[in-house]
Task: inverse folding
């Protein structure tokens, strides 16, 4: 019995999430996953804030990077980041729920490009992120044939 693309994405995400101590430590949740897509979120707490009393950019980057990682790993192929860029557009504030939504733009051979939009609770864009992925050897789970 072959799995649907949605089932492959979910099983890949479940396998990754089980080992993703960094995202869990940050207080992140994996809210949705599908073929080439993923959504992660966390609430900005005091330990996430910097010297300006706003969410540290590194945590916003990590939130976006995790959504990117789940999106590019949604095909039961191990994928890692080649490079990423982020633009910070407004601050993440204490108590806000930040949400990162990743969408695949393209995949060609072993490479992929993904855009991630990070929004606050009002739906305003906090940051935009673009990630490039590279497939490496291995799978998240063994598929039955």
Result:
């Amino acid at each position: 019995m072959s799995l649907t693309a949605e089932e492959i994405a979910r099983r890949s995400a479940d396998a990754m999430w089980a080992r993703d101590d960094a995202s869990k430590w940050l207080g992140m949740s994996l809210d949705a996953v599908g073929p080439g897509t993923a959504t992660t979120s966390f609430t900005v707490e005091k330990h996430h804030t910097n010297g300006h009393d706003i969410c540290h950019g590194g945590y916003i980057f990590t939130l976006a990077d995790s959504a990117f990682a789940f999106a590019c790993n949604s095909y039961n192929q191990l994928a890692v980041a080649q490079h990423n860029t982020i633009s910070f557009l407004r601050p993440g504030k204490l108590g806000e729920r930040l949400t990162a939504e990743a969408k695949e733009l393209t995949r060609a051979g072993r490479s992929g490009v993904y855009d991630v939009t990070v929004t606050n609770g009002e739906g305003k864009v906090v940051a935009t992120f673009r990630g490039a992925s590279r497939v490496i050897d291995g799978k998240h789970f063994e598929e039955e044939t």
About this structure: The mean pLDDT is 96. Helices lie at 5-19, 21-26, 57-72.
